[in-house]
Amino acid sequence: MIFSGNNEVYSTVYRSLYVTCLGTLLSCLWSIPIATVLGLYSFPGKWLIKGIFNSLIGIPTVALGLLLYLFMSHQGEFGSLHLLYTLNGIAIGQSILVTPLIVSFTASALGAADVQLRDLAKTLGASSFRCNLAIMRETVWSTVLAVSAAFNRGFGELGVAMIVGGNLFQETRVLTTSIALETNLGSFDVAMAYAIILMAIVLTITLAINLVERLRQEEMPRKK
Amino acid sequence: MEVRLQLKNVEKSYGSVKALENINLEIVGGKTITLLGTNGAGKTTLLRIIAGLEKRDKGSILLDGKGTNGKQLRQIATLVFQKTVMFNRSVYSNLAYGLKIRGKKDTEIKEEIARELHAVGLRNFEKRKARKTSGGEQQRIALARAFLLNPQILLLDEPTAHLDPYSATIIERAIMSRTKGKGIVILATHNLSQAKRLADYVVHIYGGKIVEIATPEEFFNNPRSEMTRKFINGELDY
Q: Mind giving me the DSSP string for B100-128?
């Protein structure tokens, strides 16, 4: 089934990639600025905000899905946007789901950046803004890893996709909801095929990022 | 015109610990000052305050008679840290960082970096990853990075600590060539023979206070202070 050229399989994979890529990108728009503030600046209550984001990393996807359903339904505050049972609705749900992960990991990386890097930038003449830019540049790879972890979390989640998306055939059915459906129907071979595709995509992306990082870290050849 | 740096009654504490107390110092451009002292004496704290990286609790720092704040000090002073710090980039990018902030053109930057790397014995090192070079090479890169900015006040915190004799010699030669200018060089070191070779004046710091200021000849041959005598003889504890 994996290599059968089945259009439904391809479109399911496409929908999965679409919602997770869109959701992750959306989340980056607000997560990275929030992480920058949390990582690089001190202010009252910072510890509390960091704690809240840290604790929300493991938020149950079904709980979030239910909450979003209530907001997006016809009676909800955002009912008029008609996001329920749409791919964009799932994407928005996943963007909220992965926000704590991107914020926490990125803020931690920024906060852990060598204090002397800031001193170095300062003594070379950098303003506060440029110092922060220098630190962000030094930790950009940590941000990439945080975003890839967020992507994997979103790609493999079920609760938001099922409740917000409704698992509608050829409309909002994604890999995880397909696995759940086929398992419930007793079609374990089909469910397993979808699971293998899902894991293969996650592994490929993760390994690709690790490979790029490894190449980045490799030593330049020394001249003799 | 030579620069003139004055520290008046500078003090710094970390909690209940007094790191610097009643520091008074006047340095004229074209001179090299060596700060000598035991570990924890206050040498690095003093360098960081002059570099504008630490706030002083009391006192003033004047440059050519005018008071300065941290931001102004950072524009005229550059500190080379005891433990080398490199951006995770190429040697070229590390060296160009400060020059780009100052708005230098790429062609000028390229020429100046090539010249400065040659001066510290690291020709054609531009493309190497800075953090992948050896400790001695990183120290030379850090020195070249500071030299490129041509600061009025160059601050060096134990620049040859933990280096092999070859690297240490290259760095000392680079420092000596630098000290022929009009700026001020302040060098913190444990190395007594280095202080003899490089300094116009030696400043002995102990317990956060200046104990003695003298020329190398006076300092080593006829120290006025008993503490200085003990320090030279290796009898002074932390």
A: HHTT--HHHHHHHHHHHHHHTT-TT-TTS
CA A16 vs. chain centroid, Å, equals: 13
Domain total of chain A: 1
pTM above 0.90, yes or no: no
Structure ipTM:
0.91
Task: Find residue B18's DSSP bridge partners.
Answer: B13
A110 lies in some domain:
yes
Instruction: Give the chain B residue whose CA is nearest to the CA of A130.
Output: B101
CB spacing of A124 vs B87 below 8 angstroms: no
Range(s) of the domain holding residue A155: 7-217
pLDDT 10s per residue in chain B (238 long)?
A: 678 999 999 999 999 999 999 999 999 988 899 999 988 899 999 999 999 999 999 999 999 999 999 999 999 999 999 999 999 999 999 999 999 999 999 999 999 999 999 988 899 999 999 999 998 899 999 999 999 999 999 999 999 887 888 888 888 888 887 766 778 999 999 888 889 988 999 999 999 999 999 999 999 999 999 888 988 888 876 5
- Would residue A127 count as lying in a domain? yes
Task: List A residues 114-133 in contact with B (Cβ-Cβ < 8 A).
Answer: 114, 116-117, 119-126, 130
Domains, chain B, ranges and CATH?
4-83+152-232 (3.40.50.300)
Chain B residues with CB-CB distance to A121 below 8 A: 97
How far, in Å, CA of A127 to CA of B142, rounded?
Answer: 20
A1 part of a folded domain = no
- Domain membership flag for residue A2: no
**Pure H helices in chain B:** 43-50, 70-76, 91-101, 106-119, 135-148, 165-178, 192-198, 216-221, 226-232
Read off the CATH number of the domain in which A182 is found: 1.10.3720.10
